[in-house]
Design brief:
Elements: E1 5-10, E2 30-31, E3 34-35, H1 36-46, E4 51-56, H2 62-67, H3 71-79, H4 87-95, E5 97-102, H5 111-117, H6 119-122, E6 127-131, E7 134-137, H7 143-155, E8 159-165, E9 175-179, E10 189-194, E11 205-213, H8 217-221, H9 234-244, E12 247-251, E13 256-259, H10 263-276, H11 281-292
Parallel strand pairs: 1-4, 1-6, 4-5, 8-12
Antiparallel strand pairs: 2-3, 6-11, 7-13, 8-11, 9-10
């Protein structure tokens, strides 16, 4: 079944970015010249997604305002021959329908709650679920997600999850996967394991925030209960699916996953994106060399 819907979780408080995010969402913090969230939306569109729900914090309206047309600004830019500065936003508005959903305040904290908030939007359709602070840097935006969608449509599993191979010495920072011992499908997984030591981790495949899932997963998410941290974890739902149904792994081969959830890794992502930009990359590279010489 072709997947045309995506849900992006953007309802967190972003406390590690305080005080700057006191007045606006963390997902609007820029990576070079665009908000983090815009990269995710463009990734989804480039993979063929046409309906995107953005789950935002209750009472917050700046995300919707950012992605909505601004006739007054457009008139000003047109008069000053600068309308091209809004070209990327106008492209999004032309190619996808954006739905903005406030996460209900009665839902618990955790990555599973944003998925639950999108239940009516999802309906009975399979969908892509994306964490709002995970960035994929790749030669062509949407390339890896396209591969995930192809796997989902080819094998018709209950879920396809994304991972990136990391040095085994770093695996304790992430969730990792254990492959099925008697798989029925390629790259079928058995279990998701949280922050295992290098000595006990079954693989060096670190879990990241890209999932293609059937809508039935939300039925379990709604009843699964909270974790030991009193949070509703999306990975608990995926883990249940892995042990009761079919979950396949897709590993990034031509690209790099970068989390932007804290200031240091956000800064690294900015540098990575900027170095790849033909306009600012050469000058930035020369500037950085002055610190390394």
């Amino acid at each position: 079944m072709k997947v045309t819907k995506a849900v992006i979780a953007a309802a967190g408080r972003g406390t590690r970015f305080l005080p700057v995010v006191k007045s606006y969402p963390k997902e609007l913090v820029p990576i070079l010249s665009k908000p983090n969230l815009q990269y995710l939306i463009e990734e989804a569109i480039n993979a063929g997604i046409t309906d995107i729900a953005i789950i935002h914090r209750f009472g917050e309206n700046l995300i919707e305002k950012y992605f909505s047309p601004d006739p007054e600004l457009e008139t000003y830019l047109k008069q000053n021959n600068k309308l091209e500065y809004l070209e990327s936003l106008k492209n999004i508005q032309a190619k996808a329908k954006l739905t903005f959903i406030a996460q209900p305040t009665n839902l618990p904290y955790g990555t599973g709650s944003s998925a639950l908030a999108a239940k009516d939007f999802v309906g009975a359709d399979p969908f892509v679920y994306m964490y709002g602070d995970d960035l994929i840097v790749e030669p062509k935006s949407g390339q890896f997600l396209t591969e995930m969608l192809a796997t989902f449509e080819t094998y018709n599993p209950d879920a396809v999850i994304a991972t990136q191979e990391v040095p085994m010495s770093e695996i304790s920072r992430f969730g990792c996967i254990k492959y099925a011992e008697n798989p029925r499908f390629p790259n079928q997984i058995d279990t998701l394991l949280e922050k295992m030591s290098p000595e006990t981790a079954p693989s060096n495949n670190a879990l990241l925030g890209r999932f293609v899932v059937s809508s039935s997963i939300l039925e379990y998410t709604a009843t699964q209960g909270l974790s030991r941290d009193k949070e509703l974890w999306w990975t608990d739902s995926i883990n249940h699916y892995a042990q009761t149904s079919v979950v396949l792994n897709q590993t990034i081969k031509d690209g790099e996953w970068m989390t932007t959830g804290d200031p240091l890794r956000w800064l690294k992502s900015n540098i990575k994106i900027a170095l790849l930009d033909p306009k600012v990359g050469p000058e930035l590279r020369d500037y950085l060399k002055t610190f390394l010489s």
